[in-house]
Amino acid sequence: MRESKVFQCLALSVFVAFSGISIFVSDADAITIRVSQESAPAAGDFDANILGFITSFDTALSTAGFYQYGSPNAASYNGELNGGPTPVSSLSQLFLINGSDGLSLAVVHDNPNDGSGGTTTTRWNLTGDTGAFVVVDDPGEGVAVSAGSTQFDSNKNWIACCTDGYAIGSLDGNWAMFGQFLTTPTGINSWQASSADGGNIALLLQSGRRVRLDIGAPIPEPSTILLLGSGLVGLGFWRWKKAA
Which tens digit of pLDDT belongs to each residue from 104-150? Predict the structure, then answer.
């Protein structure tokens, strides 16, 4: 009877390990965010289209300090100097900054001095929390907050010298963000969710097709992974002993 119960527990560990659950290991301080995108505009089928997870860029700086607007590249994001993602020509990037003022969502369009500008109109809807624009690149340009500080609209227009973008913070608790391009952008032909661990996620750029960011399911800690591994070893030993 005892051996039967041991086998059941080990079998459960094996099932969890191999039932299609992906395991991600990240730094203890990093915040892990789930990324999904609906199959078509207004489809709402986010749970059926989970793309993966990204981790936050952690810093002792404030969100604005990490974004480092205007120096050395004028009127631009310079966060790559603080360990953030490098801006890329014709790419729109979203990423999370975990700074001294809390967790913020940042969006950066394009790359400075790449010979072309662009325009975008984006909207983010926040549930489970309220927020505010904590960085506006360029200051005073084309942003609006409505619906009780839960809807964030951005109309951006930049020239070849510069990036454009913004950051929305601070995000706390069990929140979710739903983002979309309201119109087809110019000067941008792709976008992605950028991760501190390098596991960037490509997103489909289609007007009105929303992306969801949320905390999602908890990610197993390394200790959990070791427990699953020990279960596999134990199962092998038990089967060997029984055969012997």
Answer: 999 999 999 998 899 999 999 999 999 999 999 998 889 999 999 99
Task: State both tokens at 140.
Answer: 């005073």
Spell out the residues 6+ positions from residue 156 whose beta carbon is closer than 8 angstroms to its own: 109, 118, 119, 120, 121, 122, 141, 142, 164, 165
- Residue 90 in contact with residue 190, Cβ under 8 Å? yes
- Report how far apart, in Å, the C-alpha atoms of 114 and of each of 107, 118, 183 are: 18, 11, 23
Tokens of 164: 């454009």
Question: From residue 174, how far is each of 31, 33, 140, 171 by CA, in Å?
Answer: 13, 11, 30, 9
Q: What's the pLDDT score for residue 229?
A: 52
27 φ/ψ angles, rounded to the nearest 5 degrees = -60, 145
Angle at 76 between CA 74 and CA 81, to 5 degrees: 95
Q: H or E segment at 24?
A: none
Token code pair at residue 70: 């205007």
Distances (CA, A) of 6 to 12, 170, 223, 227: 10, 47, 20, 14
Mention every residue, 6+ apart, whose C-beta is less than 8 A from residue 79.
57, 66, 67, 68, 85, 97, 106, 108
Would you state the pLDDT for residue 217?
57
